[in-house]
Task: structure prediction
Amino acid sequence: MIVLNSGDSRQPTIRYPFPQGFWWGSATSAPQIEGAAHLDGKGKNIWDHWYEQEPNRFYGGVGPTDASQFYFRYEEDIELMKEIGHNSFRFSISWSRLFPNGYGEINQKAVDFYNKVIDKLIETGIEPFVNLYHFDMPLALQEKGGWENRFVVDCYEQYSAACFRLFGDRVSKWFTHNEPIVPVEGGYLYNFHYPNECNFTKAVQVAFHTMLSSARAIKTYREMKLDGKIGIILNLTPSYPRSSHPADLEAARIADAFFNRSFLDPSVKGTFPSDLVEILRAEGQLPVMQEGDLRVIAENTIDLLGINYYQPRRVKARESLPNPHAPLLPEHYFDYYEMPGRKMNPYRGWEIYEKGIYDLLINVKENYGNIECFISENGIGVENEARFQDENGIIQDDYRIEFVREHLKWVHRAIQEGVNVKGYHMWTFMDNWSWINAYKNRYGFIAVDIANNWKRTVKKSGWWFKKLAENNGF
Ligand code: BG6
Result:
């Protein structure tokens, strides 16, 4: 353990110093913060549409127009980021704001908005990390089948090329997708995203087209010879077996294939995991592809891996045979397992297992060529967080500080063991609109008081993060 102490008693003792230039910041997405869902020429995306159809599916009946108003307040918000120590910030571009129909004509007002955001970030000393797709399919393209339809892959390639051309002179960290498995799960398996299907065949096709779109965007980026890096952001959930019984180990391996290696392997290695391919073949569920697709994926792997980590996945061998008439799901192959005594986030119902972040990083080092990576999301959601306000209206979120600190200790250890991890981004900067959970679980360093004209107030954790970033450690 390195302990830095300058001998000056005013200087804090830094027990966990991070490498120089470490990226400190946070992440969010366009639909979750912008608001202005129907303004300045933006086209509808699936969230705008689904909310119109079924507002009851959204917590408190709150929809995407009520995202945190960054569209109007980006200057003040970026100043606040600086105030709490950010040197980098990840946001996404709204595809349907830039291309209201998903392809074809560009909306100049969107170009103006993203130019202003990028310029303001740079002027403020915050590096923009830009993601192209965060769950927000333009409605016009969903009406053509969304990611089920190969035409949408072509449209995405056109959209990505436009973004690189318009903003690539100033943005040098690009991401093709955020958590690409989530729209597969939500939209095609478990009914928490539009189009609310439960159809394994479509899920596999959607996953394959998403992966292909990522490789094609990477190819486009490289052909443009821009001076930057391009990657993908994956939510990785280490799969822990209940025991070392071979059947439990097998269950964990299959869960890992479905939920981690499905996107991690093609993104980093350019190949799909053979055990997953075998399962899909045996089920008669291989996706439709065209000649050359696998070559594009093989030749266009990422430069930089973003890892989102919230919780582990604990599994055990199935205890009963699956209903042969039920729709096929990955859970056909394993059961979930609640480990006795596991530590829980009592405010969100997710397990907290800090060492999971280290296990993921070591896996990247040992099995994925120690590719350059960073923690692109980590965070703790809290229901009813206003109850933790003190008499000055500041949320005393000591649980969030502890959460970050305990995860960072493991990230620090991974760095000491040689993992090529370059930064830590928190989910998220300010409380934001979170899909069907709307504002149920608050994650921000900054509280947003919706009823009080969207007032922003830095939480205790925001001030703590400022010190952390300034000291480059704690
Ligand atoms: C992350 C997503 O996995 O979880 C975010 O990338 C999302 O978009 C976040 O908002 C929190 O989810 P929830 O359901 O707890 O609000």
The CA atoms of residues 246 and 317 lie 9 Å apart. The chain has one domain: 2-471. Residues 2-471 form a domain with the TIM Barrel fold (CATH 3.20.20.80). Residues 29, 178-179, 235, 308, 348, 377, 381, 427, 434, 437, 441 surround 6-O-phosphono-beta-D-glucopyranose (CB under 6 Å).
